[in-house]
Design a protein that fits this description.
The complex is a heterodimer of chains A (about 700) and B (about 375).
Chain A lengths: L1 H35 L1 H12 E6 L6 E2 L5 E13 L8 H19 L4 H13 L5 E7 L1 H7 L14 E10 L7 H4 L2 E2 L2 E2 L1 H5 L1 H5 L3 E8 L3 E4 L13 E4 L3 H18 L3 E8 L5 E11 L2 E3 L4 H4 L9 H10 L8 E3 L4 E4 L2 E4 L7 E3 H6 L3 H12 L3 H10 L17 E2 L11 H6 L4 E2 L2 H12 L4 E2 L4 E6 L2 E5 L4 E3 L5 H16 L14 E8 L19 E9 L6 E8 L8 H4 L1 H14 L18 E7 H12 L10 E7 L2 E6 L17 H10 L3 E5 L4 E8 L5 E7 L1
Parallel strand pairs in A: 2-10, 30-32
Antiparallel strand pairs in A: 1-8, 2-3, 3-4, 3-5, 6-7, 8-9, 10-21, 11-12, 11-26, 12-13, 14-17, 15-16, 18-19, 20-23, 21-22, 24-25, 25-26, 27-28, 28-29, 31-32
Helix pairs in contact in A: 3-4, 9-19, 11-13, 11-17
Chain B lengths: L10 H21 L1 H7 L5 H23 L4 H22 L9 E4 L4 E4 H19 L7 H19 L4 H17 L4 H24 L5 H13 L7 H13 L23 H34 L3 H25 L17 H23 L6
Helix pairs in contact in B: 1-3, 1-11, 3-13, 4-5, 4-6, 5-6, 5-7, 5-12, 6-7, 7-12, 10-11, 11-12, 12-13
Chain lengths: ~700, ~375
């Protein structure tokens, strides 16, 4: 027995030694982790456990002057799913996967049910903890998703992980997109860019700790740094005027296949910009708002600049608009270059007429005559009109204008006569408009403004008032003469196509030849290359008591027409007309009855009850009566004649319907059992029957 | 002190149990805070009181068992072994938790227990019984070695599919007990290597089966261990961070940050957690406590008059200490990840109770020696 015991003890000590060795290895390993690898693990610990996460402040809104929302931030969600969420057992998954796939397909409709199912199954098999379900999900959709199979198990359990981002949205879509601005490659442009500091707000900070299952949990119940939401910006933009300006511009650009164009509408008294539209041609059918030409492109303005030249000469007392000048048949050589008028053959004319017909020779001669000895006097006057410096509008990227002076190296003998009619100098459309606005504002030049105020949570942070740049750019008598001439341009000058009989427009056309890349103008007769033109019209309305000023610049119209009055003028007129029609304060004289005189004869076809209603409502005629259901009505000098329209179509003749509106014609035909195909639009021109195999009655209506 | 007269047997073992329980209570309270945040609305006391109850009941069990005359365990061992086999079979085919069929529910209590815990104790007791009975012709192959091989293979074989590490630990433990019980070294080495071969065959078959079950987990764990840069090595990295940031004196009670990342900081990785909060000092101390426990087991063996009692004491203490070292080796990344709890420390009801019962048996042997019961035959 003792022998055995000793053996047992011996072997036990061997085991004990082994265990001690094992224990030593554990302790050794412990110290190895703590000291040899310690640094590495401690560094890793720091990045893992806690971290400050930023909480984005919501970006401020941008409003139009009437409080319409021009730009706002909407929450947009990214949905992910933890396919290994604890509550999703194999049984639950198998039972609900079909419903979930169907529901996802129903809501997003981007993948088939089986594709969803396959994808979810694969994610489940791969044990994805962060499986992407959908991006760009809206709040209403998110609410629906939360009720979906499996996901409805609830937070954490259902595995749904929701990430929120803010998406910038412009509720009016294309309206003034470029002026409002957007994020271009991380750098916002437009108002978004200029006022980014106000809009962006202040990010908050929250200390988060990672807990099991890679869930970040805030350590404290309150944020360490609370986010401050961005401020709201109210612009001076008027959505209606902006809409009109954009529509008029794009229509005309398309018509003339122009490369690009811009429209600015400004309020005369305040300098508030009511509309600023820019379009660039993408392809023949598409124009996009990409670049703010209104402020960003300084070009040779051409004839619209003559206003500055006349202002200078009149204000300096050299000429009066009643003086006469010899236009020398529309050609005059200055040194090696010939200044030419668009209309040849004019000789001695009044200064006013020279302006109104846009004679280049006349103004070139005037300026050259009076300022050749002291050209500095001319350029200094232009400088005093602020034409040589940016307007300081509240947008980034305003182009630097250039008006040279005699000290400059590129000052030539031709500079003075050429500058006189808008060449050898560059200015932006906004600068020209600022000058015209000043003339309309009786000589008070105001700074163009785009932002009215900045508010945060209803508290006014900043209010912008009109800034006067120059209290009197010229003597009142000068301004008066200039305005007479500007009015004359439309009344009897180069822009008579803008004349309306309800409101007087004042302005000046401009057609300039665009310098080619080589710097030459191609405006010599010898040139064979096609010329590129810039058509513009700058002015204000109503002429007597100006409320708005406006400039339209269309670059490189590619049709045969390129004159300012033809290409740019109609845009100006449309804008002016629409503003006049919608703003009662412009309508100084009440509309008289004669304006709406009914056409001498008016022939309409339709339902007699409809006519009765129209008579009552519009003509206060309660006596309209007829026995026929469908009539042809003939109003002649307020006397109506009715002719009954035959609607039985017995003889398979539909001639009685010719001239009727499509809606009424379709109604009548379908009531008789015909199936109708419509081609074209307008009133009925011709009706033909088609024989069908089944014997169905089928007709084709062709419309005018 | 009168109270000590109620606690008979080795006083050092009692002290070790108390110290380990203390560590256990403190660690579990802090380590379960994440669990509490997730499941109990942040009420961390829920897990502490539950654990305190389990520890107390374990203590009661230990006390009761230690009062039992240890020779009775010889008979119980036989019964327990017969009971263990069907229980193991039942769990293998029964409901699964974490892909592993290890638990069995005790009807009406809502409690589950790992049948392998029960089978392990039963096998160790049976080995002590068998070896002590065959001491006279222990070197014989046919009458001693072959018959003892049968229950070892049976039990380990049934545990293996559900719980590889437990089966392996139990197998090694059994071999060590056979070694101490004077079985021929040649046979032990032989069975050890044939065991390895059989394991190899088992794994080869399993890898060819379509539903690989736990096999994938094992494979992954071993791959991760061999390739420390693997992205899936999250658990081990977190344990190392816990150990490295703990330093000499630790971050202090309740100051652990790694409990948020450590998988089962209250169980499989509790050793790393203890080092994080109480430092390497505590880490070394825990190792020391287990070594002392083994020393006390040897001491009992030395003073036992009967081979059964001695083998029982050394078998159980070795089994516990070995398991503890495996757990600590995993936490320090000396071994690949396995699910072995730290005896008496890790949270988990029945594991603690079986440990308590096992230690109660050791104390019973010790008590008998002290009181001279061991000699009266």
């Amino acid at each position: 027995m003792m022998d055995n015991k000793q053996y047992i003890m011996k072997r036990t000590y061997v085991v004990y030694a082994g265990v001690c060795l094992f224990a030593c290895a554990v302790v050794f390993q412990l110290f190895k982790v703590q000291y040899v690898e310690g640094e590495k693990w401690r560094a890793k610990a720091k990045e893992l456990t806690t971290q400050y996460q930023t909480i984005d402040a919501s970006r401020g809104n941008i409003f139009s002057i009437d409080g319409s929302l021009l730009a706002t931030s909407l929450p947009i969600y990214e949905l992910r799913m933890d396919m290994r969420a604890e509550a999703i057992t194999d049984k639950i998954f198998a039972k609900n996967i079909d419903s979930l796939a169907i529901q996802l397909n129903n809501l997003f409709n981007d993948k088939t049910v089986s594709a969803y199912k396959k994808e979810l199954k694969r994610a489940r098999r791969n044990k994805e903890r962060y499986h992407l379900l959908q991006r760009g999900v809206r709040y209403t959709q998110l609410k629906e998703v939360k009720q979906f199979a499996i996901i409805k198990l609830g937070k954490y359990k259902g595995g749904l992980i929701v990430l929120q981002h803010d998406k910038r949205e412009q509720p009016f879509k294309n309206l003034a997109v470029r002026t409002i601005g957007y994020d271009r490659a991380g750098k916002p442009v437009g108002i978004e860019g200029k006022y980014n500091n106000y809009l962006v707000g202040q990010q908050g900070k929250r200390l988060m700790q990672k807990i099991a299952g890679s869930v970040w949990m805030p350590i404290n119940s309150e944020n360490e740094v609370e986010p401050h939401d961005g401020a709201d910006i109210t612009t001076t933009i008027d959505v209606n005027i902006q809409d009109v300006a954009q529509h008029a511009l794009i229509t005309q650009l398309k018509k003339h296949k122009a490369h690009h164009g811009c429209v600015i509408v400004m309020e005369v008294a305040t300098g508030q910009i009511k509309a600023m539209a820019n379009y660039t041609r993408k392809d023949t059918a598409t124009y996009l708002e990409q670049y703010n030409y209104a402020i960003g492109e300084a070009t040779e303005p051409g004839s619209t600049f003559k206003l500055a030249s006349y202002l200078t000469a009149i204000d300096d007392g050299y000429i009066k608009i009643s003086d006469t000048i010899d236009a020398e048949g529309g050609r005059k050589k200055f040194y090696d270059r010939i200044v030419r008028d668009s209309h040849d053959g004019t000789n001695r004319i009044s200064v006013q007429h020279a302006f109104e017909t846009s004679s280049n020779v006349a103004i070139a001669k005037i300026i050259n005559k009076y300022y050749a000895k002291n050209p500095r006097k001319f350029t200094d006057k232009l400088y005093s009109l602020n034409l040589n410096s940016p307007t300081g509008i509240d947008l980034n990227g305003e182009a630097q204008p250039r008006i040279k002076n005699p000290k400059d190296k590129d000052w030539y003998g031709t500079s003075l006569p050429y500058m006189a009619h808008g060449y050898e100098l560059t200015v932006t459309p906004l600068q020209i408009l600022t000058l015209y606005n000043a003339v309309a504002n009786n000589g008070v030049m105001v700074k163009p403004m785009l932002v009215k105020n900045i508010q945060r949570g209803g508290t006014m942070l900043k209010q912008y008032n009109t800034t006067v740049i120059n209290n009197a750019i010229a003597k009142p008598s000068t301004i008066k003469q200039l305005r007479t001439m500007l009015e004359g341009v439309v009344q009897q000058g180069s822009a008579q196509n803008l004349k309306t009989n309800y409101m007087k427009i004042a302005g000046k056309t401009g057609t300039s030849v665009i310098a080619s890349s080589k710097g030459s103008y191609n405006n010599t007769e010898e040139s064979t290359e096609a010329k590129a033109y810039q058509a513009s019209f700058a002015g204000y309305f109503p002429a007597e008591n100006p409320v708005y000023s406006c400039i339209v610049v269309v670059n490189n119209p590619s049709g045969k027409l390129y004159y300012g009055n033809v290409v740019a003028g109609p845009i100006f007129k449309e804008v002016a007309d629409k503003i006049y029609a919608t703003q009662l304060n412009l309508q100084t004289t009440p509309v008289t009855d004669t304006t709406f005189k009914i056409k001498k004869t008016l022939i309409q076809m339709g339902n007699s009850n409809d006519f009765a209603t129209i008579m009552r409502a519009l003509l206060h005629n309660n006596n309209y009566k007829t026995n026929a259901d469908w009539v042809k009505i003939n109003v002649d000098n307020r006397v109506t004649h009715n002719t009954k329209i035959e609607t039985s179509f017995n003889k398979k003749s539909f001639n009685s319907l010719i001239g009727m509106g499509a809606r009424d014609a379709v109604y009548l035909l379908e009531n008789k059992g015909y199936s109708v195909i419509i081609r074209g639009k307008g009133n009925v021109k011709r009706i033909t029957t088609i024989n069908t195999v089944a014997g169905n009655k089928k007709v084709i209506i062709e419309l005018v | 002190m009168k109270i000590f007269t109620y606690f008979k047997g080795d006083k050092v073992i009692w002290a070790i149990v108390l110290l380990l329980s203390l560590f256990s209570l403190l660690s579990v309270y802090s380590a379960t805070s994440t669990l509490a945040y997730k499941h109990q609305n942040g009420n961390a006391f829920y897990y502490m009181f539950k654990h305190l109850f389990i520890l107390s009941l374990g203590f009661v069990l230990m006390y009761l068992v230690h009062s039992v005359r240890y020779t009775l365990f010889s008979r119980i061992a036989q019964l327990a072994l017969f009971l263990a086999v069907p229980l193991l079979m039942f769990t293998l085919l029964g409901p699964k938790i974490n892909d592993a069929s290890r638990w069995i529910a005790i009807p009406g209590t809502g409690l589950t227990f790992q049948t392998s815990d029960f089978a392990k104790l039963a096998l160790i007791m049976y080995l002590a019984r068998f070896l002590s009975q065959k001491q006279d012709n222990i070197k014989d192959f046919k009458s001693a070695f072959l018959p003892i091989l049968f229950p070892i293979t049976l039990i380990c074989g049934f545990i293996l599919p559900a719980n590889f590490s437990t089966a392996a630990v139990l197998f090694v433990t059994s071999m060590v007990i056979l070694f101490i019980g004077r079985i021929n070294i040649k046979y032990i080495l032989g069975i050890f290597f044939s065991g390895m071969v059989m394991l190899g065959i088992f794994l080869a078959i399993l890898s060819q089966m379509p539903n690989q079950g736990r096999f994938i987990t094992w494979k992954k764990r071993i791959e991760n261990f061999r390739n420390p840069d693997s992205e899936n090595n999250f658990q081990v990295d977190q344990a190392k961070i816990a150990i490295a940031t703990g330093g000499v004196l630790g971050k202090g009670p309740g100051k652990s940050t790694q409990r948020n990342f450590l998988p089962h900081p209250y169980s499989d990785f509790i050793y790393a957690f203890i080092i994080e909060e109480y430092g390497s000092v505590a880490g070394v101390f825990v190792v020391f406590l287990y070594l002392v426990l083994l020393t006390r087991g040897i001491n009992i063996l030395k003073h036992s008059e009967k081979t059964f009692g001695g083998l029982l004491a050394i078998g159980i203490t070795f089994s516990l200490v070995f398991q503890a070292l495996i757990n600590m080796a995993v936490a320090t990344n000396l071994f690949p990840v396995t699910g072995q709890p730290l005896p008496m420390v890790s949270m988990g009801g029945t594991s603690i109770w079986f440990t308590s019962i096992a230690l109660g048996i050791v104390l019973s042997v010790s008590r008998s020696i002290n009181e001279g019961e061991d000699n009266d035959e």
